[in-house]
Design goal:
Blueprint: H1 9-16, H2 20-23, H3 31-40, H4 44-52, H5 57-63, H6 69-76, H7 81-87, H8 93-99, H9 105-113, H10 117-127, H11 130-136, H12 139-146, H13 153-159, H14 165-176, H15 184-192, H16 196-204, H17 208-221, H18 231-241, H19 244-250, H20 256-263, H21 268-275, H22 280-289, H23 292-301
Helix pairs in contact: 3-4, 5-22, 8-20, 9-18, 12-17, 13-15, 14-15, 14-16
Length: 302
């Protein structure tokens, strides 16, 4: 398949020193055809240019006006999906972020679910403070963390020292059915001696405000605990509290390799548009070194 692109015939005429009278004969010819005709006529510049065609980045840029996004787009529309994927890593971070605008907010949230949680959390904390995250999380998510078998029980019990005594009394009474006795230290010791199920029941019987306070104390001691909350809880929070523009801006902190995978999810026509932002020299170099067969079509297309 030939690739029809706007060749800079003026550049070709000057480079090969072709008289205007002869150049008029070449208006409908491809670059390859012009070079062959001139070489056959003994034009040494044409012979040299044919030799340089697949090695000289600057010549390629000038001849096919590759700085023009429209010309890049013509070429990219002829590329296969696997070829396009090789171009995406050449995009700058800002170009990748701009490309995210082609997705809907729902699609962006689905893409966030597919990256490592620590990467997704970078975006979450661009959008919310730790306090806001705890405030917006559903109560069942707090329960999940506070009763997680992997959570350091001793750390939680130590954190109970910061909870008002009246709330400790309430959760002890909710389990024992009897009036709680003693100060905070005694109550915490009693909670620590509960069996597994009674212990979990006591913790989940806290008032929501105290669950939030306790959770905040814990995550401040160990920020990795934020990974214990479900990904869906975070995406629902983002969808409810922030708009698409805010989300896209916050996704700028995600590592490029994950953004590359996201951009590659775009339909081919939209992916072509995004990749036209690639640095022109990088694009020309890729045509020479990664896609020589495509470059051959370009030279032959006229």
């Amino acid at each position: 398949m030939s690739i029809v692109i706007n060749t800079d015939l003026e550049y070709l005429r000057n480079r090969l020193r072709i008289p205007e009278s002869r150049m008029a004969l070449y208006e409908s010819k491809s670059v390859d055809e012009i070079l062959k005709a001139e070489a056959a006529a003994g034009n040494q510049e044409a012979i040299q240019m044919a030799a340089d065609m697949f090695t000289d980045v600057n010549q390629l840029i000038e001849l096919f006006q590759l700085a023009d996004p429209e010309n890049k787009l013509v070429i990219m529309k002829q590329m296969t999906s696997s070829q396009m994927e090789k171009l995406v890593p050449m995009l700058e971070q800002d170009d990748l972020i701009q490309g995210l605008n082609f997705f809907t907010q729902d699609s962006l949230l689905d893409l966030l679910k597919d990256i490592p949680k620590e990467e997704m959390l970078k975006t979450v904390f661009e959008l919310f403070s730790q306090t806001q995250v705890i405030e917006y999380l559903p109560e069942k998510q707090l329960d999940k963390l506070l009763t997680d078998s992997d959570l350091d029980k001793e750390m939680l019990l130590q954190s109970l020292k910061f909870i008002p005594e009246m709330y400790l009394q309430q959760i002890v009474e909710s389990v024992t059915g009897e009036e709680a006795q003693g100060n905070s230290t005694a109550l915490i010791a009693q909670i620590g001696q509960f069996g597994d199920q009674d212990y979990k029941n006591a913790i989940t019987n806290f008032e929501p405000s105290q669950k939030k306070a306790l959770t905040y104390i814990l995550v401040n001691q160990e920020t990795k605990l934020f990974q214990k909350f479900d990904t869906d809880a975070y995406t629902h929070m983002i969808n409810r509290e922030r708009d698409k523009d805010e989300l896209i801006k916050a996704m700028g902190v995600i590592k490029p390799e994950h953004l590359h995978k996201m951009i590659n999810e775009l339909p081919q026509d939209l992916l072509s548009i995004v990749t036209t932002q690639i640095d022109t020299e990088k694009f020309a170099d890729s045509l020479i070194n990664k896609f020589p067969e495509l470059l051959a079509q370009l030279v032959a297309g006229g």
